[in-house]
């Protein structure tokens, strides 16, 4: 969970809890064979441009300057085609030997497979090559391709342009090969290589760099805006095994240090790039454009040092799939995946509440257990909330009892404040003496609340990003997906601070919070500045949290609303019990007082 979000929630609860306490004081699987891939043409061939070149001078593709490259040979078809296996539906584009679409068959976005490439028609495809370290002009030559089993291979011959602007004798072959794993594997391999036909050094050098392999522009699913509940984060795992979130300068982070992998991470899906042992320059880039259909891009660039050999082949691995540990940790043991990979530790991209990760795991197990009994995650969330409140009832009971006892001291506190209005020190001493006499701990109502924070934070982290909540329906027609806000109406205009969508759960949450606080004994009987403080606590805090959580996932708000409703029932029960106990106490006191009076009358 985002640290800022955790801090905001914790501070909000602390403000409420401590504020109430102060007020009381003042006014008391195994790898399988991949099936044969299916190739389906999806576009008609178009006319192939005559030449495409790489310039060693200014990185332009079509200058014809000496030292640049020219594609030679027959013009291949530029029609995109589809490769499909058990996990992916991938649209390959011969132009640049690139990929224009990656869909995950087992994960849906609505009724369709989720699209992992979020791009506009004008954006570049994924896995294009760039000259040297340049990231503006991709190699858009059309490649020949072949498909065999789980491999897709692209090739094209290039010649070097001489001083007279013509192709020199001989050529080199540039190859890009994609290889996919078995069932249940979301990781695949990309090999980029070149071989010189005359056994001479392949002249790939542009400012001491050979080429850049890019993943761009953004990972899916598509979004309109990013926030704490729908985000894209960039991570790097260094050679020492530590995961960090790099700091970008003007939207760019660049390092020549060795890395294990780098990733673009969303709440439910991620793209992880794993280079080989070559010392690449790693560049991470973010760019925002409110006028684009892709509001923010998050890209990875791996730049290879210059090549000075007759042939070379570089290996890159890419994980493009769900944020699920079971799909990632299979690459920690060689016998668990078809690539024989080990110790990649891709699961480190998963976001948890760090020190509370173990508690999230326990609560997740209980949530899934409830789901097995009643296959509705909304019901499972309510049952989990009820269970946690039952387990925390002793603490809640102690807190409520302390609140009630503090509230009962309001008349004495009012007298002390009047008596020592001009002497704060005496007032504090008299207040402390009153607490000692009544055996009351002024923090008794606050400490139990603080002890509940670990469970509250762990549940917040779990319900904010639990993968199985994606597309999980609670109530048809109202909450069809617990991982997103419960949009019941979309306006043609924007509401201030809220946007153009109407959500019901935030309203229910804020309303239930107000009623829950109204039932608290400390909310009545206050006067003066204390009354103003209580009024803010009762109405101001729910209003602040209403705006803070307005776009929160439905599952998270369902939990918070359930907490408020259960707290209301507990508080009503405690208040009723306190009233009955007080009445019984007054009745006993009245009997004690009346006994000697009656006895005296009899003597007369």
TrEMBL record:
<keyword id="KW-0472">Membrane</keyword>
<feature type="transmembrane region" description="Helical">
    <location>
        <begin position="443"/>
        <end position="463"/>
    </location>
</feature>
<dbReference type="InterPro" id="IPR028055">
    <property type="entry name" value="YidC/Oxa/ALB_C"/>
</dbReference>
<dbReference type="GO" id="GO:0015031">
    <property type="term" value="P:protein transport"/>
</dbReference>
<feature type="transmembrane region" description="Helical">
    <location>
        <begin position="536"/>
        <end position="560"/>
    </location>
</feature>
<keyword id="KW-1003">Cell membrane</keyword>
<keyword id="KW-0143">Chaperone</keyword>
<keyword id="KW-0653">Protein transport</keyword>
<dbReference type="InterPro" id="IPR001708">
    <property type="entry name" value="YidC/ALB3/OXA1/COX18"/>
</dbReference>
<dbReference type="InterPro" id="IPR028053">
    <property type="entry name" value="Membr_insert_YidC_N"/>
</dbReference>
<keyword id="KW-0997">Cell inner membrane</keyword>
<keyword id="KW-1133">Transmembrane helix</keyword>
<dbReference type="GO" id="GO:0032977">
    <property type="term" value="F:membrane insertase activity"/>
</dbReference>
<dbReference type="GO" id="GO:0005886">
    <property type="term" value="C:plasma membrane"/>
</dbReference>
<protein>
    <recommendedName>
        <fullName>Membrane protein insertase YidC</fullName>
    </recommendedName>
</protein>
<dbReference type="Pfam" id="PF02096">
    <property type="entry name" value="60KD_IMP"/>
</dbReference>
<feature type="domain" description="Membrane insertase YidC N-terminal">
    <location>
        <begin position="84"/>
        <end position="362"/>
    </location>
</feature>
<feature type="domain" description="Membrane insertase YidC/Oxa/ALB C-terminal">
    <location>
        <begin position="377"/>
        <end position="576"/>
    </location>
</feature>
<dbReference type="GO" id="GO:0051205">
    <property type="term" value="P:protein insertion into membrane"/>
</dbReference>
<feature type="transmembrane region" description="Helical">
    <location>
        <begin position="374"/>
        <end position="392"/>
    </location>
</feature>
<comment type="similarity">
    <text>Belongs to the OXA1/ALB3/YidC family. Type 1 subfamily.</text>
</comment>
<comment type="function">
    <text>Required for the insertion and/or proper folding and/or complex formation of integral membrane proteins into the membrane. Involved in integration of membrane proteins that insert both dependently and independently of the Sec translocase complex, as well as at least some lipoproteins. Aids folding of multispanning membrane proteins.</text>
</comment>
<dbReference type="InterPro" id="IPR047196">
    <property type="entry name" value="YidC_ALB_C"/>
</dbReference>
<dbReference type="InterPro" id="IPR038221">
    <property type="entry name" value="YidC_periplasmic_sf"/>
</dbReference>
<comment type="subunit">
    <text>Interacts with the Sec translocase complex via SecD. Specifically interacts with transmembrane segments of nascent integral membrane proteins during membrane integration.</text>
</comment>
<dbReference type="InterPro" id="IPR019998">
    <property type="entry name" value="Membr_insert_YidC"/>
</dbReference>
<keyword id="KW-0813">Transport</keyword>
<keyword id="KW-0812">Transmembrane</keyword>
<dbReference type="Pfam" id="PF14849">
    <property type="entry name" value="YidC_periplas"/>
</dbReference>
